[in-house]
């Protein structure tokens, strides 16, 4: 089972369990490849249902300072696209069920070569992509992704009007990522009622599962949103936990990985059955 099928199966299982899923974001290679790999490999056991693995990039324009810093830490410590794909490949040696979504920007993929990237990512065991600066009209990457049986996941936001939503969901697969606030990642959070209203509008356009992210930092916030969405996305909180466990010299302290995984456990523990 690969790609879109693995994502669909995960959402089917979550629906059968009567709960929302936890989508966790980490940056590949942050604070270094070794610790990042430990975190990645243990995320499912800690409670992650779907994993977004950030592909480090030197100019992550849609991200706030927390995730920008994580990309820079990763690059400073030798992260590369090849190493990111190797992390996925090694993860798949022990986990054939948890979907992995590669998230990032088009520039590193263009440099790598679009066709080669899709082929290599598929072979490594990735299931889909979120490329934040590629609109749905751009087919250069979407078409080979679809041909490979993987998912292309698009972002929607409070400013996405009905006409634009129609275009977005026409090409979306896997799930739809609803950005609950406008702006950059990790800055603020939206009111639960606003999110509920937005998801009702979004569901008039698509039957795909909806994951809500941006600004969700605590178990309480995640639990509240989980009552309305098929999945909750948490990213900046985990990346911040990495940063909190760096020494004055920028090197990771003992227990860095476990601190991140403990936060994952705390947030996952709050995603109980829907009311």
Mean pLDDT: 91
Number of strands: 9
**Total helical segments:** 12
Beta-strand residue percentage? 5-15%
CATH architecture: Alpha-Beta Barrel
Q: Please compute the radius of gyration using only Cα atoms.
A: 17 Å
CATH superfamily: Aldolase class I
**Strand/helix succession:** HEHEHHEHHEHEEHEHEHEHH
Strand arrangement, largest sheet? 5-4-3-2-1-9-8-7-6
Helix content: 40-55%
Domain count: the total is 1
Distance between the termini: 31 Å
Shape label: globular
Main sheet attributes: strand count, strand direction, barrel closure: 9 strands, parallel
Uncertain segments: 182-188
Q: CATH top level?
A: Alpha Beta
Task: Provide a concise account of the structure shown.
Helices cover 48% and strands 13% of the residues. The protein is of the alpha/beta class and 275 residues long.
What descriptors fit this protein?
TIM Barrel; 275 residues; 48% helix; 9 strands
Write up this protein:
The chain is an alpha/beta fold and 275 residues long. The protein has one domain: TIM Barrel (Alpha-Beta Barrel). The chain is built from twelve helices and nine strands. Strands 5-4-3-2-1-9-8-7-6 form a nine-stranded parallel β-sheet. It starts with a helix and ends in a 6-residue tail after the last helix. About 3% of the residues have low confidence.
Question: What does the secondary structure layout of this molecule look like, with pairings?
Answer:
Blueprint: H1 3-17, E1 21-27, H2 33-46, E2 50-54, H3 65-76, H4 81-92, E3 100-104, H5 106-112, H6 114-124, E4 128-131, H7 139-147, E5 151-152, E6 155-156, H8 162-171, E7 176-179, H9 192-203, E8 210-213, H10 219-226, E9 231-234, H11 236-244, H12 256-269
Parallel strand pairs: 1-2, 1-9, 2-3, 3-4, 4-5, 6-7, 7-8, 8-9
Helix pairs in contact: 2-4, 2-12, 4-6, 10-12, 11-12
């Amino acid at each position: 089972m690969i790609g879109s099928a693995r994502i669909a199966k995960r959402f089917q299982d979550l629906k059968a369990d009567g709960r929302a899923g936890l989508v966790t974001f980490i940056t590949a290679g942050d604070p270094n490849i070794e610790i990042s790999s430990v975190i990645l490999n243990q995320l499912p056991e800690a409670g992650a249902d779907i994993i977004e693995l950030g592909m480090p990039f030197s100019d992550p324009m849609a991200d706030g300072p927390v995730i920008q810093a994580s990309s820079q830490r990763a690059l400073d410590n030798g992260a590369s696209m090849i190493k990111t794909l190797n992390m996925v490949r090694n993860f798949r040696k022990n986990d054939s069920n948890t979907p992995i979504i590669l998230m990032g920007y088009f520039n590193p993929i263009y440099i790598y070569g679009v066709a080669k990237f899709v082929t290599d990512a598929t072979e490594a065991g990735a299931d889909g992509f979120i490329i934040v600066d590629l609109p749905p009209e751009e087919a250069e990457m979407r078409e080979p992704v679809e041909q490979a049986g993987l998912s292309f996941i698009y972002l929607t936001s409070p400013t996405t009007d009905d006409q634009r939503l129609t275009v977005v969901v026409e090409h979306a697969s896997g799930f739809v990522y609803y950005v609950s606030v406008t702006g950059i990642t990790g800055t603020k959070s939206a009111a639960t009622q606003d999110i509920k209203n937005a998801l009702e509008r979004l569901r008039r356009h698509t039957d795909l599962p909806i994951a809500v992210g941006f600004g969700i930092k605590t178990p309480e916030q995640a639990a509240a949103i989980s009552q309305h969405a098929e999945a909750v996305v948490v990213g900046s909180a985990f990346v911040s936990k990495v940063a909190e466990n760096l020494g004055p010299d920028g090197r990771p302290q003992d227990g860095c990985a476990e601190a991140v995984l403990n936060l994952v456990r705390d947030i996952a523990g709050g995603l109980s059955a829907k009311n």
